[in-house]
Specification:
Blueprint (H helix, E strand, L loop, with lengths): L38 E5 L2 E6 L4 E3 L3 E10 L17 E3 L3 E7 L3 E12 L3 E3 L2 E9 L4 E9 L2 E4 L3 H37 L4
């Protein structure tokens, strides 16, 4: 054939199973002694970086910040740790984006969104996150500085809107009641009128 000169026409393909020598892997459990309270479940060296927001907010203003985690562990199984906690804070779903770095490492970025329903003041603190280092056989604790959070102002704008809405509803309700009375009176009049 015309393609035979290039070696396309006469080739035959065979399926072949290839096998390497069996390699034994010993999976060691993580030590149960000395597990830090902030253990993330990650194995191998990891970096934790908090990218804070502006620190001062108004009531009902979105509070946004990020936590970036880089390392060789199973980051797809790592959930977002709690950064701020307060009864007046509403926490929305935290977005997480995982990207591979080369063949063995990855980066996971958590995007937090909170909303303060009232004024609050959270002092700065340190958050301890730790991973297990298989080279040393020990848990390694990393401390992240979490800046303070200040939210000022009262929930005045939304409550005054609610008052206006309530006032409007009362006016409308009165109108509806009067309208009902109007129709009721017409029907009563109709029932009194006798057609011949």
């Amino acid at each position: 054939g015309g393609l035979g000169g290039f070696g396309f026409g006469s080739q035959r393909y065979k399926n072949k199973d290839l096998a390497s020598n069996r390699v034994e892997i010993e999976v060691l459990p993580l030590p149960t002694e000395g597990i830090p309270a902030g253990f993330t479940g990650l194995v191998g060296e990891h970096e934790f970086t908090l990218i804070p927001g502006k620190g001062k907010y108004l009531v009902n203003e979105p509070i946004e910040f990020k936590l970036e985690v880089k390392g060789k562990g199973a980051l797809e199984k790592f959930d977002a740790p709690g950064i701020y906690s307060d009864p007046n804070l509403e926490v929305f779903d935290t977005k997480a984006e995982l990207t591979e770095i080369g063949n063995t490492a990855a980066k996971k970025v958590f995007e937090y969104t909170l909303l303060a329903r009232n004024s609050l003041s959270i002092p700065p603190r340190e958050l301890s996150l730790s991973y297990f280092d298989p080279n040393t056989g020990k848990y390694v604790e990393k401390k992240i500085s979490i800046p303070g959070l200040e939210v000022s102002g009262a929930a005045a704008p939304s409550s005054s809107n609610q008052k206006n809405e309530t006032a409007n509803l009362k006016k409308d309700d009165v109108a509806v009641v009067n309208l009902d009375n109007f129709f009721a009176n017409i029907f009563n009049l109709n029932s009194k009128i006798k057609f011949k």
